[in-house]
Design brief:
The chain is mainly α and about 270 residues long. The radius of gyration is 19 Å and the shape is globular. It is built from eleven helices and no strands. About 75% of the residues lie in helices and about 0% in strands.
Length: about 270
Amino acid sequence: MAADVAVSLTVLAGIVVLSHATRRVLGRALAATGLSVYAVELVSTFQLCCCTHELKLLSEVGGIEPRLALTLTYLASVVHGLTFSGAIGNPSGALEHAYRARLSGGCALRRIACQFTAAAAARAAVPVIWGIGLSGLHARHKLFGYQCITPIRAPLLKAAVVELACAFVVQTAITHTRAVEEKYRVHAVAAVITTVVYAGGSVTGAVFNPALAFSTQFPCSGNSFLEYCMVYWLGPLLGMMTSVLLYDKLVPLLAGKSTSPYDSLDARKRQ
């Protein structure tokens, strides 16, 4: 078990280092074209999906202790937050940025296209990595044909509500920590992500990211494509929208204010 964990940690580190180097190279090469933001989005989402595939394998097939799995989830979330270089990595997040006019509608859609492209690429790439047989865990997974079973362990409506709640909590945390210095903010958001994974992981896997779910959950047997869409696409989208509308519209309305304090903060940042 320790050897499998060590190999997986090495794989994770390799993915992050290679992704970081690729971001830097593409960022410089495409700086004058305006395409660098999409390259960064593509590479960062690929990093997120590949790392999540490896962590999912450790947890579900490797059977590591829940405390270790949560610790790795926290550390991975911190690393992603520190290395994404402005990428969003989540279609719901891109739509939220478009709603707040931080991105144009076209830019948000192009970023979402990059996210799903990267998710599909990661889904194709990780079996190649596992097929090398770097660890006993990888070799066993290859032996069984890289099979995975649906992580949905509840009726579909309940599962969708769990994903909605996870997305709501994470989006609320992201919204309320925007004024916090970045080096502290990533830890706060990572702690929230780890908490919702602990709370909802046993029901749906607590993905709350449509592109990430497309990469890690949709290939699993046990549910149809439409059922996965309901849980992992509709649920997180409604969770994000509920958080945004609650704190941008309902709370200011009840408080007698015409605008959200977060809209005002965004406006000051754009000045």
